[in-house]
Amino acid sequence: MPKRDTLADLLAGLSIAGLLLPEAVAYSGLAGLPPQAGVLALFAGLVSYGLLGRSPFAIVTTTSSAAAVLASALGLLGAGAMAARVLLGSVLVVGCGLVFMLAGALRFGAVSSFIARPVLRGYAFGLALVIVVRQWVHMVALPADTTVFGPLLLEELRSLPRWGNASAACGLGALAALFLLTRIRRLPATLVVIIASILAAPVLAAHGVALTGPITIALGLPQFVLPAGTHWLPLTEFSLALMLILYAESYGAIRTTALRHDARVEANRDLIAIGVGNLVSGLLHGTPVGAGYSGTSANEAAGARSRLAGLSAAGVVLLCVWLLLPWIERIPRPVLAAVVIHAVSRSLSPAVFANYVRWRRDRLIAAAAVLAVLCLGVLNGLLAAIGVSLAMLLRSLARPRLAVLGRLGEHDYVNVARFPEAATRPDLMVLRPEEPLFFANVERLLGLMRERLEGAPAVRTLVLSLEESPDLDTSTLEALAEFCAWLAAHGTALRLARLKEGAREAVQQLGVTQLSGPALYYSSVDDAVRGHAVVPT
Fold it and tell me: HEC states along 317-363?
């Protein structure tokens, strides 16, 4: 690596360390864990991804969304005392890391694609609202009896006269400073605000503003003795939920920076790298880690050239913890709450939904994801959002769309609904399903084909183009065999065009006369119409 790139990476690491360390302490509180949990997670994520990851810009550290999901999971598991929260949190983070690594080993790099973007943006918007409301109690030093969004918001509004004036002034001042200073390019706004708050800590503490307090960095052997009444099944479910939201967030940050710099994305390698980071963090009793958008964007803006920037940031964090820990303990808690609120504020922009309104698509789906988080809670809202994504997929695939094709020119066959001038023949019909055939839509699509054929009694040959179906499941094969019997009873021949290899091998196993030999080897619709099959010898 050229010396200029090495220097750029070192400077980038130095620059972002000042942002990452206070955020890690703040997200520990968001997760309901002691401050050292975020610090240890930060170091584990930076080193693990720096050694094993692929993206030159990704910064793997604790994130607000993962911290909120972990806090919700710990609440649902009934972890009240801090010792129980630390223990169960470690189990969940280790489980999350193992799921990441298993997904990478099985090459499930596209797993985040199962969460549609409208759902993910709606979930992020709702989650940001929940985080702001939960952090507001720390901003104004207000004891809260609940963490549920609606009741907590009402409690905060009703308790307005009991807000701590000094804490509110400190937190709101820090929040305003963060929004103002971030407009100055290359200025580490978070670091400036944190340093100013540390210098003012004695005065603030004298007026009753709570400080972070002691941070004990003590490494010990991990213990995984579950509290009485805790079962492995919910732990597994929560670990999977953590993994899904972390990877969706991480993949979005990694892919966005890769597109800007024409860099490659190796999803499976990143799965394993982030998995190792979570495994190490869990063993150290840290919070979950992922490639957060704020840290990754800051690293890119600081001029990083390679993963050395993340490793140098880890070195700076280690030095800060070693030399400056007493100062970090003096950070006022309202300032940490302001850091969290500022970090999630970009997800609260209504502009993220502008395209859905303008295109008149997926508006209700995005709104449903927002409401799921607000009404069902962070974790159940995530699971509901994933369910909505899968329901969208199934709805799209199960919706029967059947195109009738006609000849346009010498060899091209196109949809006659779009090209009415395309020529058709009374004795021949060419049909093409617009979605892959599978168990949920095959019966309806074949039913539409029967209706088409019954409305055209002169048809003696049916050409079925299956270019959209790379493979066929057993329900589809059985339905095709029954369809062939129906065609035979009505004196109609069947030819399959553009079969993919997987689908051809599946059809050959049926042993149906109409689906054997030349009927499976028409490389184009035109060849099938002409009866020109190319059967391999």
Answer: HHHHHHHHHHHHCCCEHHHHHHHHHHHHHHHHCHHHHHHHHHHCCCH
* Tokens matching residue 396: 């799209």
Neighbouring-strand partners of residue 413: 407
**How far is residue 401's CA from residue 478's CA, in Å, rounded to a whole number?**
20
Report the pLDDT value the prediction gives residue 145, as an integer from 0 to 100: 67
What is the reported pLDDT for 202?
Answer: 92
Beta strands 493-497 and 461-465, pairing class:
parallel
Contact of 282 with 91, CB cutoff 8 Å: yes
Q: How far is CA 13 from CA 16, 270, 280, 319, 468, in A?
A: 5, 20, 21, 13, 47
Q: What is the DSSP string of 4-68?
A: HHHHHHHHHHHHHHHHHHHHHHHHHHHHTS-HHHHHHHHHHHHHHHHHH---SS--EE--HHHHH
Q: How many CB atoms lie within 10 A of CB 347?
A: 20
**Tokens matching residue 273:** 């790298």
283/469 Cα distance (integer angstroms): 45
Token pair for 210? 């709570």
Using 50, 70 and 90 to split pLDDT, how confident is the model at 288?
Answer: very high
Which run of H or E residues covers position 442?
A: helix 442-454
* Residue 147 main-chain phi, psi, to 5 deg: -120, 5
Query: Does CATH place domain 400-530 in 3.30.750.24?
Result: yes
DSSP 76-129: HTT--SHHHHHHHHHHHHHHHHHHHHHHHHTT-TTGGGGS-HHHHHHHHHHHHH
- Decide: residue 145, CB within 10 A, 0-12 exposed, 13-18 middle, 19+ buried: exposed
* Of 292, 273, 265, 251, the residue nearest 112 (C-alpha): 251
Q: Which residues make Cβ contacts (< 8 Å) with residue 201, sequence separation at least 6?
A: 211, 330, 331, 332
Q: What average pLDDT does the structure give for the chain?
A: 85
Kindly state the tokens that stand for 78: 């009934």
Tell me the mean pLDDT in the region 280-307.
85
CA atoms within 13 A of residue 19's CA, in its CB half-sphere = 27
Distance CA 462, CA 428 (A): 6
Residue at 532: amino acid letter: H
> Could you say which DSSP state residue 377 is in?
-
Q: What is the largest CA-CA distance in the chain?
A: 94
Domain residue extents for the chain: 3-212+225-395, 400-530
Name the pairing type of β-strands 428-433 and 402-408: antiparallel
Question: Is the separation of the CB atoms in 311 and 47 below 8 Å?
Answer: yes
Phi-psi region of 285 (alpha: psi -120 to 50; beta: other; left: phi over 0): left
pTM of the predicted protein model: 0.74
How would you label 252-262 residue by residue, b for 16+ Cβ within 10 Å and e otherwise?
bbbbebbeeee
